[in-house]
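Student: I would love a firmer grasp of how sequence relates to backbone shape in proteins. Thank you; the sequence and its tokens follow:
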Amino acid sequence: MSSRERVLGRVRRALADVVPDERPYEEVVGRDYLRTHGRRSTEETIELLAENLADYRAIVHRAAAEDVRMLVMRLLARRGSQEMLVPPGLPPDWLAAADPVWIHDRAASTPQRLDRVGSVVTGCAVAIAETGTIVLDGSPDQGRRRISLIPDHHICVVRVPDQVVSSVPEALERLDAARPLTWISGPSATSDIELDRVEGVHGPRTLEVILLG
């Protein structure tokens, strides 16, 4: 008898006295948990998002629609990026002619080629205030998952208040589980058993978020 068979056998014995429930999964699993924690105004929700993003070591900026182009240009210049990766549907008014060379993501772009790009600029699907999390779903203004994971510097534009929600349950209602979802809470980071933090191991070392109002 294999280990797998032994484990499954124990599971079957543990469930032997459980009465089968033929109801649909949606009815069997309770959904009576809190959807949000407390009541917040739109402004308070956005402030909470900014606070939690910063707590995760993201760099938060605020910009009006007419200023985002210049802000992106300044961030790229400060970073010193020679090339900038852009998804196919990124709004053109987010970019300036003086920006670094635009590298459009294509199916033929290899990870090695993308690794030579200094920065990537994307939009997002939704941002969650209570967790300081940004979710990308592969829409045209976000592109393939790899373009937000390989470059070392990620500039993500969040439209406020339209793309900001308070909680994870509210975010899930907006997302399509069949899409390639990428959940981002600060720059990529990990730590070993000694709790030594290392950033940039499996994603961008620097995350800059523009709250576009």
In short: The chain has a mean pLDDT of 90. The CA atoms of residues 126 and 172 lie 9 Å apart.
